[in-house]
Each structure stands twice: as C-alpha cells, then as structure tokens.
Specification:
Layout (H helix, E strand, L loop, with lengths): L7 H6 L10 H13 L4 E5 L4 E2 L4 E2 L9 E4 L6 E5 L2 E6 L6 E4 L24 E9 L7 E6 L3 E7 L5 E6 L4 E5 L11 E9 L3 E6 L2 E5 L14 E3 L11 E9 L5 H11 L6
Antiparallel strand pairs: 1-17, 2-3, 3-4, 4-7, 5-6, 6-17, 7-16, 8-13, 8-17, 9-10, 9-16, 10-11, 11-12, 13-14, 14-15
C-alpha cells in the first residue's frame, strides 16, 4: 500500500503559480464578488466605493441603496487596513450611516415572507466585518430601529453580540453566551440570520450559535431608517470600523455564511 506524503517544499515552490486559499491578495479580488452571489442580496456596502456628491456610501449590488453619512462632529472617514477597506466611526462625534424608509414594503423592510424568494429560503441575513475601538454595551452595528424595532444587531454589556427581530409584539432577542468578542482592535466577521418560525442565529468568525424556541413567523414592516453604527433616533453609537457589510432578504444556511467568511478572512488577518 502506497501512502501519498504531503510535500510542503514543493507546495511552497509552486506558490508563484498557484495561489494558496489563505492569502490576502486572493481574498482581495474575491471579497466583493462573494457578496454579489449571496441569495436575495438587497444591498452590499464594501466601504471602498464612496460618492463625492452627497456624500454617500455606495451600494454596489446595483439596487441603489446608498447610505448617507451622518455626524455631529465631522463625517465618518474612509481608509484601509492593509488591503481591507473600511469606514471609521467615532462614537463621540455621533457618526453613522443611514437610508430612510421609503414606505411599506420598501428596500430595507425585510419581513422574511417575501414571495419572490422560494419558501425554503425566506428570511433575513445581515452582517459584515467589524473592528471595535472601544465598547460600552448596546452599540448598534446594523439596525432598522428607531421609534420601533424591525431588526437589529448590537453589542451587549458583556461584550457579546445580540441579534433581534420583532414581529410586532416585542423583540425576540438572541445573544451569544458572552466573551466571543474578546478584544478591541481586532477584526470580527459578524452575521445574524432569521429563518421564520424555525431558527435565528449569530455567526462570529465562523462559529455559530442558534435559537429555535419562540422564533416569530415574520418581521414587522416599520417606518424607521436603516442604519449602520447607530439607531435611527439616533443613538447607541458604534466606535470602530465596518467593512464589507450586506443586507439580504433570505436566510443563509451555515455553509453559505461559512463560505463567505472563508473567502474574506485572509483580507483581515483572521
């Protein structure tokens, strides 16, 4: 019986011809295109494309759901960490991104019952890469929440992550067990998803936690703006960086979220 031995030296010699899976340059060229093939994607904001006219953060999905920059003390700023683009938010300056609701059934009103999505895939998924400069608890990462709540993803006081959806009778909250967000000045891939009447959950760097009890059948349609880094009221400002964010009108199975994480992670050194 012959055993094939992995030849690490030969692999290293061929790196100039065949790209390894975990390489920042490889992730760099596929990071945005990975967002474009997410099922039901409503918007994708890599934080690299910024319009000079408004100014706005450009939605590259083609749906035109660009986000307006808001602040009391100077607008959010854009830069890069190695090859990763990001938008920087300073909580003390009340900086966040938003797009107003346009009426019932508008772009961010994902109820999880959209009939053009096949029943087995209906739901909501949202997320991106986040880097925490400081934390106090309650900061919103992504939300459709102001006077009322449709959905939100935020930090908890224990530095965990909470994902919430509201069917109209009060939000159903699901929080990670705590301690998953272990450090400031570190990138985390954070995704929340909702599968109507079945499951909701949170993924942090490819580690999944789920809730199956009491999951509602739909999410209410509210008049509040969609936001990144605050609520629409506004308040609960996030202090840190955001990159490669997306919103989708479908629930993504774990293998899709895991594939997205694996495609992008080398860009962030994770």
């Amino acid at each position: 019986m012959t055993t094939q031995v992995r030849n690490d030296e030969q692999i290293n010699l061929l790196r100039g011809d065949f790209q390894p899976r975990y390489e920042p340059n490889f992730a760099w060229k596929s990071a945005v295109s990975a967002l474009m093939v997410l099922p039901g994607v409503r918007a994708a904001w890599p934080m690299s494309v910024v319009a000079h006219t408004a100014p706005e953060v450009t939605d590259v999905s083609g749906n035109g759901n660009h986000l307006t920059m808001n602040a009391v003390g100077g607008s959010p700023q854009f830069s890069y960490d190695q090859l990763a683009p990001y938008c920087r938010f300073v909580a003390a300056n009340s900086q966040y991104l938003s797009k107003a609701d346009g009426g019932a059934g508008n772009w961010a009103d994902v109820t999880g019952t959209e009939t053009y999505i096949r029943t087995a895939a209906q739901g909501l998924t949202l997320g991106g890469w986040f880097y925490f400069s400081s934390r106090s608890g309650g900061e919103r990462l992504m939300a459709k929440e102001g006077v009322t709540t449709a959905y939100r993803m935020n930090l908890t006081g224990a530095n965990g992550i909470r994902f919430s959806v509201n069917a109209g009778g009060g939000a159903v909250d699901f929080s990670t067990a705590g301690g998953e967000i272990a450090a400031n000045n570190t990138w985390y891939h954070i995704v929340g998803w909702f599968d109507p009447s079945t499951e909701m959950g949170i993924s942090i760097n490819g580690a999944f936690q789920t809730l199956v009890a009491g999951v509602p059948a739909s999410i209410q349609d509210t008049a509040d703006a969609f936001t990144i880094a605050a609520t629409a009221t506004p308040g609960n400002y996030f202090d840190g960086f955001a990159s490669l964010c997306f919103l989708a009108a479908a629930h993504h199975e774990e293998y899709i979220i895991q594939a997205l994480f694996q495609q992008q992670r080398a860009l962030f050194g994770v």
